[in-house]
Amino acid sequence: MKDALQMDLKADVQSLLGRLGVEARILEAGDMASFSPVTGQQIASLAQDDAEATRAAIARAAAAFRTWRNVPAPGRGELVRLLGEELRAAKDDLGRLVSIEAGKSPSEGAGEVQEMIDICDFAVGLSRQLYGLTIATERPGHRMMETWHPLGVVGVISAFNFPVAVWSWNAALALVCGNPVVWKPSEKTPLTALACQAILDRALALFGDAPDSLSQVVIGGRETGEALVDDPRVALVSATGSTRMGRQVGPRVAARFGRSILELGGNNAGIVCPSADLDMALRAIAFAAMGTAGQRCTTMRRLFVHDSLYDQLVPGLIKAYGSVPVGNPLTTQALVGPLVDRQAFEGMQAAIEAAKAEGGVVHGGTRVTDAGPEAAYYVTPALIEMPAQVGPVLEETFAPILYVMRYSDLDDVIEQHNAVGAGLSSSIFTTDLRESELFLSAAGSDCGIANVNIGTSGAEIGGAFGGEKETGGGRESGSDAWKAYMRRATNTINYSRELPLAQGVVFDI
Length: 509
Ligand code: UN1
Known about the structure:
- This protein has 13 helices and 21 strands.
- By secondary structure, it is an alpha/beta fold.
- Strands 12-13-14-11-10-16-17 form a seven-stranded mixed beta sheet, with helices on both faces. Strands 7-6-5-8-9 form a five-stranded parallel beta sheet, with helices on both faces. Strands 3-4-21 form a three-stranded antiparallel beta sheet, with no helix packed on it.
- A hairpin with a 6-residue loop joins strand 3 (134-135) and strand 4 (142-150).
- Helix 1 (2-20) runs antiparallel to helix 3 and helix 9 packs across helix 10.
- The longest helix has 30 residues, at 73-102.
- The mean pLDDT is 97.
- It binds 2-aminohexanedioic acid.
- 2-aminohexanedioic acid is lined by residues 115, 161-162, 166, 240, 296-298, 457-459.
């Protein structure tokens, strides 16, 4: 039974890649092993791009920039419109490949591709809206304005958990803004990246006259990433991953005066207030904390419940944790799929042990051995009642663990809410206007995302995505996040016959 499952998966990958336009020979082209968390089996061994190959890709991208920057932005938008169309056509296959490579449920795999389509639509509109301001000038006969120009090569470093959507947030904006892209996907999810490249290649063929190497994928680990980070020809490095990774990438890019967008860890919390709609809160918390097996950067990891309803809400949550279906996302209706690998499982177990040592009462968090082969890591999600916000509660563990704590005073709990390193996403559950407005105010949540009566995860692409503090401060996706992908020039034009100087300075010669 187990063997049959493994064989099926490999065949499945091959036919999916074939339909998506990736040549089968790449599956056995090198020594970088790629696994599916669904079965733990190796599904490919790919060739890697070392530092030299990465630098060659950057050089090609730099050449492409010289042409692409001169294509009018609405024309660049046409390429992204075609990409969106190709993604629509490939949605089922790419979604399934995401499920195989990242272990997501079919609905979440498809949802991730939908997120790509959405950002393409957004970027197409944006291609006619890269607005600069006209600014009042103090000098007569002058006009002052700002112009947004393409920036240069954009390097994208992405994580396994959103293997394709995060690339599309960056690529759709970068391309519309006039920039080539060099993408280093996670070593855990190279196949979905190669599939995206094939999809984009089809859009490029339909587009016709785009420069070569406008968007490239480089496969590899640390060496590949470092080549991208350190190369002065890469104007912007957009990196998604752990805070540990960001601590290295940020200073290295800054040291060469490059620009970076850092989208790092989250330790996202929810606060359930006395007036909350408990039924809705329970469902929102369940998705935010258990969805994607706790492997979103936006996953809810901490929950503060008001004393007055703790005994109403928490037993219901514990019941939901005990009954949520855990299993193979491809063959069952499971809502919670596998952890990405053994390391993730060990990290989760270590956090659970640390929580116990701090007085935590643990519900769930054990391995489900009959959900898949030995090499796959399925767990029941863990809800841990904590006496205080200490030990592992202060850290992001990339696994389905929800630490639950009591609170009695809203001001105090907002202090606690903000007393962690990360600052990505946050939620309050309340029907009291004063509570929700306080949470959204300057004295409220210190996160880049603050929600009311919605969980911490599942953001739409229209808003800027990212967070503060150890989350890195970067913003991707919607709103005016595009500005990070362009350089701004302030232009002052004198159409008079005089030369008045600013600030009333006189310099007559
Ligand atoms: C991530 O986990 O890196 O808001 C991105 C969300 C998704 C994106 C998550 N739209 O949960």
